[in-house]
# Entry
Amino acid sequence: MQRPTIIHVITGLKRSGAENVLLRLAKNLDSFTHIVVSLTAQTADDLTSEFRQAGIETFHLNMQPTRFITFLKCIRLLSIIKQHKPDIMQTWMYHADVIGGLIGRIARIKTIIWNIRNGSLPKEKHNPFIVRIASWLSNLVPTAIISCSQDAIDFHSCLGYRCAKFAYIPNGIDCEMFHIDRDAGKRFKEFNCMPSTTRCVGLVARWHEQKDIPTFLKACSLVAHENNNVRFVMIGNNLDPQNQALAKEIQSFAGLSKKMLLLGGQRDIPALMNGLDVLCMTSSFGEGFPNVLGEAMACGINCVATDVGDAAEIVNNMGYVAPIGDAKEIAKGILELLKNPKNDDQLRQHILRNYSLQKMTADYGAFYNQFGCSE
# Structure
């Protein structure tokens, strides 16, 4: 019997949270045929090659985010839909929800499912025009709305989204990729000329105001004053020595630059995570389901997180949750977990039970099957 087809419409395919979740879902939910359409252009280091290597047909419409949507690009999306005749359209994030959803209705796709990713945002941090349109269209366009975060459901319901249409499916962590590997942790310290007894506190993020890097640095400075045997590691795009603004921030804290290791963007994140004793997430807004917490815990790494999105639910009572922007409380959490770390296997088992890739894939499959799309 022919597998049902899902066409996924997403704003872009950069290496970020929602895009990686879509890749994992499409690769592992093999009871469906997946087609991926990106509204924007392919870039040199995006996920397009990974989708195509997995045998997933991928298209780029090359829309310009700062320009009005061209009629021809919408016709191209309509043509792809007509060619593949999907059973379901799944859209990802605001612009794809609105554009993909409307074109899907024109194409008479019976089942259109939106996907909301981000949690609460200050008014100045989101486009009020697109959010207003999406909230209004949520009553008319989507059959259902999936969210990876209960916080996101609450936030968008307050914005006027149709509350009754929401379904909660948290992200799934690839626990085969992210696993406890103390040999990798040992190699990490050896490669970076650290004694094996050195304690490492890390942040895995990108250079963006959402991640509140200044608060992380202030917390690091406070920790360094209390514990001289700690090194700090920053991993992610533009978290490297070439970032002059970051260098200036670090230098504003006396002596911190000597204890800070800037690794920039890296591919083998699991190996690097295993070199940490504590992972810290200091985001101040916009997080729905912070994947980095689940990934670190799957590696048996203790976590300190600010209270954004569903961070408190992910960390549960197995880590430390601090108020947003509170460097003193974050430092207190780091010092506490360095002194009294949680059992690494218990951290991993928590993720396996509640947030595994297998669970997420099964939950998506069961949700899609509600609409008569099983084989």
About this structure: The chain has a mean pLDDT of 93. The two ends are 6 Å apart (CA to CA). Residues 5-172+356-369 form a domain with the Rossmann fold fold (CATH 3.40.50.2000). The first helix runs from residue 17 to 28.
